[in-house]
Specification:
The protein is of the alpha/beta class. The chain has a single domain, classed as Histone deacetylase domain (Arginase, Chain A, 3-Layer(aba) Sandwich), CATH 3.40.800.20. Helices cover 39% and strands 11% of the residues. The protein has 14 helices and 8 strands. The protein has helices at 12-15, 29-38, 55-58, 64-76, 82-88, 103-122, 150-160, 177-183, 225-243, 269-279, 296-310, 321-328, 343-346, 359-369, and strands at residues 6-9, 47-49, 125-129, 166-170, 189-196, 214-219, 247-251, 285-289. It has an 8-stranded parallel β-sheet with strand order 2-1-3-8-7-4-5-6, with helices on both faces. β7 (247-251), α10 (269-279) and β8 (285-289) form a beta-alpha-beta unit. α2 packs antiparallel against α12 and α6 packs parallel to α7 (150-160).
Length: 370
């Protein structure tokens, strides 16, 4: 068993951006890691620098010709032929060509594969690959800002190692369509997704079980903390107990938070943290990863808190100076970032956002338990 959780990161996220006008122009992974270090929540011996997945590793799921197109795009930037752009969705539809178009996602995939290898070799424990969670990537094309699909690559690696019960839980505001479509036919994998209904990619509706082994909990706009707690207690934990996973993979996108510009959900980060604290006990091996999130302050605060939950560490009432300095150094060229409230700099925990448990949430929970 790993004595304590391990944290996987890379400096590639600090210098890489999707471009100035893209939602992923913001620093996310690097800020979350800086905040974790500033909180004194990790020691150097528990930090693992993410390797880059090899083309052979990526080809376990992704087509070789698509990987070759990504290589060409990274080398020649905007010289990719128009036919390839359309075929592979590279350079269009929110998937820009940028300097690390292959290096960055293959680092995320390498971190996921490394984390799972560490868990397998140790026989148990917790690993957090903050840069992982690119759950929209398709076998032969980019999708939803995701060029590769590290959750699928990781799960396939586990199946190759002989695992029979892999639980994947996705808390991103957007449905994890790439994971469901790739793996929900396999009875060795249970895929559970909580996401906003009626939002891109417009899949994961009530009753959608993919190839048979997916469970979807679409939630309405305004989704609140009490509703998340209800789903956790009445659906996620019971499903995990019933499935009895050998390993749990958690996709912890932060775009369901109230401050995020790409969803209409209203969670506080405390609701996500309660889910992390409860679900990490559902399997002897746990790999947590990041995902969506498009407000640099809310993402960094949420992901740093995830790390605290994975370590059973308390959330400070007020951030120490070094952590506050990390957050005050951020700039976000968005209407929500022009006058950020002071608590985005000084605290980690959001104010709770309670509310009624609506019928749509109750119906979605009943469906996945049927």
């Amino acid at each position: 068993m790993l004595a304590r959780p391990l944290l996987i990161g890379s400096e590639i996220y600090r210098r890489s951006t999707y471009g100035p006008r893209h939602p992923l122009a913001i620093p996310r992974v690097s800020t979350a890691l800086d905040l974790i270090w500033a909180l004194g929540a990790v020691e150097p011996e528990r930090y693992v620098d993410s390797p880059r997945a090899s083309l052979d590793q990526l080809a376990r799921f992704h087509d070789r010709d698509y990987l070759a197109a990504l290589e060409l795009a990274e080398r020649d930037r905007k010289q990719l032929p128009d036919e390839d752009r359309r075929r592979y969705q590279i350079g269009i539809n929110g998937n820009p060509i940028f300097p690390e178009i292959l290096s960055r996602p293959s680092t995320a995939a390498g971190g996921t594969l490394k984390g799972l290898a560490l868990l397998h070799e140790a026989g148990g424990g917790i690993v957090h690959n903050v840069g992982g969670g690119t759950h929209h990537g398709r076998r032969d094309r980019a999708s939803g800002f995701c060029y590769l699909n590290d959750p699928v690559l990781g799960i396939l690696d586990l199946l190759d190692r002989g695992y029979e019960r892999v639980l994947y839980v996705d808390l991103d505001a957007h449905h994890g369509d790439g994971v469901q479509d790739a793996l929900s036919h396999d009875p060795r994998v249970l895929i559970v997704s909580v996401h906003e209904s009626g939002r891109w990619p417009y899949s994961g509706t009530i009753g959608d079980r993919g190839g048979g082994h997916a469970r979807n909990i679409p939630v309405p706009p305004g989704f609140n903390d009490d509703e998340m707690d209800f789903i956790l207690d009445e659906a996620l934990v019971p499903l995990a107990e019933r499935f009895a996973p050998e390993i749990l993979i958690l996709q912890l996108g932060a775009d369901a938070l109230a401050e995020d510009p790409l969803s209409k959900l209203e969670l506080s980060n405390g609701a996500l943290w309660r889910a992390v604290a409860a679900l990490k006990r559902m399997a002897p091996k746990v790999l947590a990863m990041g995902g969506g999130g498009y407000n640099p302050w809310s993402v960094a605060r949420a992901w740093a808190g995830n790390w605290l939950m994975l370590n059973d560490m308390a959330v400070p009432e007020r951030l120490p100076f070094a952590a506050e300095a990390v957050l005050r150094a951020l700039h976000w060229d968005h209407s929500k970032g022009r006058e950020p409230p002071d608590h985005w700099f000084t605290t980690l925990a959001d104010v709770p956002r309670p509310g009624p448990i609506r019928e749509a949430v109750r119906l979605a929970v009943a469906d996945v338990l049927s």
